[in-house]
Write a structure and sequence with these properties.
The longest helix is centred in the first third of the chain and has 26 residues. The protein is of the alpha+beta class and 215 residues long. Strands 1, 2, 3, 4, 5, 6 and 7 form a seven-stranded antiparallel sheet that branches.
Length: 215
């Protein structure tokens, strides 16, 4: 999938899908934490594989990752990446343990909370993408990893990098409504080569139906 096959209207659709998913995720997290949570999608990009490593601070930067395999009408991989410190802060709120750390061994409760966080965020986005495109997209059970970003993302790139050149990157910002502190993460959506074309084709249908109207 070449970068120029995704037009500005495709990126606008992806951002709108992200914003819809963010609204669903914020509602779910607000209920889970019993406090008002806002989630924004500030940016959506098509990024060449050779630039992906820099987005998370370099290939050797240790991050928290929640991985999901996408199955259904368009298969692929999705990663939700958080910096260690921000991930720990959010998980501490989720489980009510101010001492939680991702240092090994990770507590079972903390690991479950991190998986649930990734499941809520990725699941909300995939549901919005599925509703928008009318594609059946099913997420696998989330898998938690704490490792160097290069080691984590290379798994997802392995099966697509020989045919595709780009990934869909969705920046996210989570924050409490009454707080200035934010949690900044990235979604990396890596559809299989044929799935990139399937998604693009459905975006063509959605885009032609919009006729330049706002949505």
């Amino acid at each position: 999938m070449e970068k120029d096959q995704f037009t500005n209207i495709h990126l606008d659709i992806l951002k709108e899908i992200g914003n819809i998913g963010a609204g669903h995720a914020a509602t779910a997290l607000s209920t889970l934490l019993n406090k008002k949570i806002d989630m924004k999608i500030p940016n959506v990009r098509i990024v060449p594989f050779n630039e992906i490593m820099e987005l998370a601070g370099g290939s050797e930067n240790v991050v928290v990752s929640v991985f999901l395999r996408i199955e259904g009408d368009a298969n692929g991989n999705m990663f939700f990446i958080l910096p260690i410190e921000q991930g720990e802060r959010f998980i501490r709120q989720m489980i009510g343990d101010p001492t939680f750390t991702f240092a090994s061994p990770i507590s079972e409760l903390g690991a479950s909370a991190a998986q649930e966080l990734g499941n809520i965020l990725a699941g909300s986005y995939l549901t919005a993408l599925s509703d928008f495109t009318q594609l059946d997209l099913l997420p696998s059970v989330p898998a938690l990893s704490v490792d160097m970003f290069g080691a984590i993302i290379s798994y997802g790139l392995l099966e697509v990098s020989q045919i595709c050149d780009n990934a869909i990157v969705i920046d996210t910002t989570l924050y409490e409504a009454d707080s200035l502190s934010a949690v900044n993460g990235h979604f990396f959506l890596l559809p299989n080569p044929e799935s990139f074309q399937i998604i693009s084709n459905h975006f063509q249908i959605v885009g032609s139906g919009m006729n330049g109207d706002s949505y």
